[in-house]
Amino acid sequence: MDKRIVKTKLALQDALLKLVSKKHIGEITVSELCTLAHVNRTTFYKYYSLPADIITEMVNDIYEYAVEQFTQPKADKNDDTLDGKVLQICELYYKNRHIMQFYIQLGSDVIPLMQKFIDNIFPQHSAERITTYFIAGGMSAALVQWYLQDFKPSPSEIAQILTAHIRKLTQP
């Protein structure tokens, strides 16, 4: 991607994160976002329709990065186990909790992202996809609940809980 586009998008992201710390994303106007980011409104509309689209793009970027990281061979073999992968998902979610918080506040559904993510890191036959989607829905709901509980328990504790449930669903 062109460096100017990256610079513009980063400026808009930074400005939006500053604004959402002061008020709800639905109250943020394109004009105030562009003023703070020092970006022309026409440029904003070249890439986005609404300020919320920036959060959606940021979440999609996080998930794409995660898929890329999870599909690469790991030096530590523990990272390739179910426990390791679920822990990495929880740590990634926790690390990006401020962005995920705004995404959830928008009423955005994390289930399709989790389904795509799990499909990429746990490849399987199409007959097993219903289980994958069930797990993705459960994990998404658990992660949203974790957000609502202010990220308590810790990432490792929530990962252990999720892993135990996944094992119950996938082992005969």
Main sheet attributes: strand count, strand direction, barrel closure: none
Q: In angstroms, what separates the terminal alpha carbons? A: 47 Å
Number of domains: 2
Helix-strand pattern, N to C?
A: HHHHHHHHH
Question: How many helices in DSSP terms?
Answer: 9
Quaternary organisation of the protein chains: single chain
Shape: elongated
Please give a structural write-up:
By secondary structure, this protein is an all-alpha fold. The protein folds into 2 domains: 1-49, Arc Repressor Mutant, subunit A; 52-170. It has 9 helices and no strands. The radius of gyration is 18 Å and the shape is elongated. The model has no long low-confidence stretch (mean pLDDT 86).
In short:
By secondary structure, the chain is mainly α. It has helices at 3-20, 30-37, 41-47, 51-70, 82-95, 97-105, 111-121, 129-148, 155-170. Helix content is 72%, strand content 0%.
Features:
mainly alpha, Arc Repressor Mutant, subunit A, 2 domains, 72% helix, elongated
Task: Give me the secondary-structure topology.
Blueprint: H1 3-20, H2 30-37, H3 41-47, H4 51-70, H5 82-95, H6 97-105, H7 111-121, H8 129-148, H9 155-170
